[in-house]
Amino acid sequence: MASVDVPACPVCGELGVPILYGLPTRVAREAAAAGKVRLFGCVVPPEPDQWTCSQNHTWRAGDDETLIAAIDAAMGRG
Ligand SMILES: [Zn+2]
Predict the structure, then answer these.
(1) What pTM was estimated for this model as a whole?
(2) Would residue 11 count as lying in a domain?
(3) CB-based contacts of 26-34 (< 8 A; 24+ apart in sequence)
(4) Tens of pLDDT along 12-21?
C-alpha cells in the first residue's frame, strides 16, 4: 500500500482523517467504522472541508491528490 502524507490538523496537530460526502458505499461504511474516513452525509457544502481529526476540527488542505490517495488507501485501493 502506498504511504500517504496525511496532513496534521492545523489546530491540534492530530493526524487528519479524510472526509467523505455523499451516500456511502458498503466499503466506505466499513472504512468509517474502522476510523479511516469520516462520513459527512449527502449534503456537500459550497466550500467542503476535506479533513477532520479526532477532536472534530475540519479543514481544507488544498491538495486534492493527497486527499484522493488517502481515501483510496482507506478503501483498500491504495
Ligand atoms: Zn484538530
Answers:
(1) 0.88
(2) no
(3) 27/75, 27/76, 28/75, 31/74, 31/75, 31/76, 34/74
(4) 999 999 999 9
